[in-house]
Design a protein that fits this description.
OB fold (Dihydrolipoamide Acetyltransferase, E2P)
Amino acid sequence: MELFNSMDIFLKTFWYIAIPTSVIFLIQTVMTFIGMGSSDGIDADFDGDFEGEDTPFQLFSFRNLINFLLGFSWTGISFYQLIENKILLTLLGVVIGCLFIYLFFLVIRALMKLTEDNSFKINEIINKTAEVYLTIPPHKSGKGKITLSVKGSFRELEAMTDGDKISSNSIVKIVGIENTVAIVEKV
């Protein structure tokens, strides 16, 4: 306690911010990992039009305030002995605090990609184009194969046509689905 009392008021301020902010950050982190940290716990009613924005990242949130103060205060403490100019030290703290918010945004964005539904639904391929991989016999007399990209991954599917034979490397349009077999026509 004597060491704390002998500190410069500027350094004490950084410590006054860093200690509670670090405790709150640890609590938020634990709550996030046990599934209780999905919101800030604030139920505010604001009127605005965000054009369908559906994102968990909000610039002005309690979590971002904690992230900013964490970066700001620990930067001030860490560089207090190295940077004598208090204005420069404060500006560096602000920059690092903003960097903490940006890093949190990147982490949230990466986590949201993990929750995306990238499951393949065959009905979603109707009206898409594909390339014939194995020749498709005429008039639904047999099955060929097509390849197409769906949500960033390549799929190989069985295909039939009502028309004439479609040879390999031809481009086709998927016009329907029958029992998981794509019905195609030449483009």
